[in-house]
Amino acid sequence: MAGLPTEAIAKGGKAIIFSAPSGSGKTTIVKHLLATNADLGFSISASTRDKRGRTEENGKDYYFLTPEDFKKKIDANEFIEWEEVYAGNFYGTLKSEIERIWREGKNVIFDVDVKGGINLKKYFGDKALSVFVKVPSHEVLAERLRERGTETEESLSRRLFKAKFEMSFQDKFDVALVNEDLQKSLREAQRLYDEFKSK
User: Fold this and answer.
1) Which tens digit of pLDDT belongs to each residue from 88-143?
2) CA distances from 103 to 75, 78, 107, 138, 144 (A)
3) What is the residue-wise DSSP string for 41-93?
4) Each residue's pLDDT tens digit, 19-56
5) Distance (Å, rounded) from C-alpha 27 to C-alpha 196?
6) What is the pLDDT of residues 142-172, one digit of tens each?
């Protein structure tokens, strides 16, 4: 899949990628790092899914696109990577996002699903650190997803099935971070970032 020109990657900053099965806590970790590191810029993904409640904003949480608009951008080669995560639900990373963040002189941080994380790591190579966030057990994951209150039993079952499958890809990442105690996980994520950007 074509992406940013090689010279753009060579000139740009670094990338830190957080991926996990849904409900593992990666978004909490990413938001914490963004709040405490002024040199990080969040890569806003494009998605065709509906907004969750009233809290999500277009251009802040996601670029919410219609399936038609998303497909036009695919045809125009505007994505670094994209995929159909669930039937009819597309997610992708726009090249323009990475260029925007690097122009600001920041490193880019990603909050993406597992397949997206693998694709981004392949794409950025040594310029990226990929982190797989996981929970201590499948039971803990089920409990966290239920607590969200956004899942039906059917969608919960689908997410848990997908999570089991995604767990098998953790060895494709540079490091695995077990998110059992949130405060410890936040400290570990900061340590990983500090170590990576100083290389």
Assistant:
1) 899 999 999 999 999 999 999 999 989 899 999 999 999 999 999 998 777 877 78
2) 25, 18, 10, 40, 37
3) EE-PEEE-SPP-TTT--BTTTEEE--HHHHHHHHHTT-EEEEEEEETTEEEEE
4) 998 778 899 999 999 999 999 999 999 999 988 777 88
5) 20
6) 787 787 777 777 877 887 888 888 988 999 9
Question: What distance in Å separates the CA atoms of residue 19 and residue 22, rounded to the nearest whole number?
Answer: 9
**Burial annotation 91-116 (CB, 10 A radius, 16+ → b, else e):** bbbbbebbeebbeeebbbbbbbbbbb
Predicted model pTM: 0.83
The region that residue 174 occupies, defined by phi over 0 for left and psi between -120 and 50 for alpha, beta otherwise, is: alpha
In a 13 Å sphere around the CA of 174, the CA atoms on its Cβ side amount to 20
Closest among 192, 193, 135, 189 to 164, alpha carbons compared: 135
In whole angstroms, give the CA distance from residue 124 to residue 162. 25
- The full DSSP string for 121-172 is HHHHGGGEEEEEEE-S-HHHHHHHHHHHT---HHHHHHHHHHHHHHHTTGGG
Q: Are 43 and 91 in contact (CB under 8 A)?
A: no
